[in-house]
Amino acid sequence: MNRVVARLRSAPSNESRLGLAAFVVMVAGMIATPMFDQAGDERRVLALVVVAALFVCGLASAVYAHGRRAMFAALIIVVFTFLVEVLGSSTGFPFGSYDYSTALTPQLLDVPIIVSFAWAGITLVAHGAFGARAMVMAGAITAWDEFLDPQMVGEGYWQWQPVSVAYRGIPLVNYAGWFLTATVTSLIAARLCGKARRTSTALPRTVYATLAVLSTIGFTFFFNDVVVALVGGVAMGVFVVLSFKGERKRIA
Which of the chain's ends, N or C, has fewer CB atoms near its CB within 10 Å? Predict the structure, then answer.
């Protein structure tokens, strides 16, 4: 955390200050979540806060590195993933058969708007952490869903149709769908953001690592699911290591 602050203070732009503030809000929201009852109103509000803060972290770091092109990339990702979610919840492709509850609002065509901002936020964070390596980005984004889906299903925000091959009640095809969708969002980010005008990997790498660490702690000690903690922790942990190795190579 101290290193992130030091790096951002060395280039005190509006984007870096906004990104750091959003990061603090995200961390506070994740820490506060287990203090309230599962599926309660407090957790629902905190889920919206955490996702919004994640989106701001990703967008702020992307704008700092790439300028206003990143805003256009974020918009396209939001629109694209919203359409994918409408398709998915209506037809079962590409994630499997699922339905959203009415807990997360506002909604359009029975899809919570915040879901598309979660896609955009994690994509821009992954783009900042891993560079324009679409397959690596897609893997990192999909690894996050190994925490996200079990937690959100537990809160009652969406539900899956029962299948024989599943991970914590979530069909394995969901993760193939995530990887496919994340590959497209990664390519959108890489193409539309263009070449970085300034290097800024400290915040997105720290955001991704923080999601991994706090989610692992949450499922181990508060959500009572060591399997998810292990699977998600290992999956995201691999990409955390890759992000820091990539940073060392850039410095060298």
Answer: C
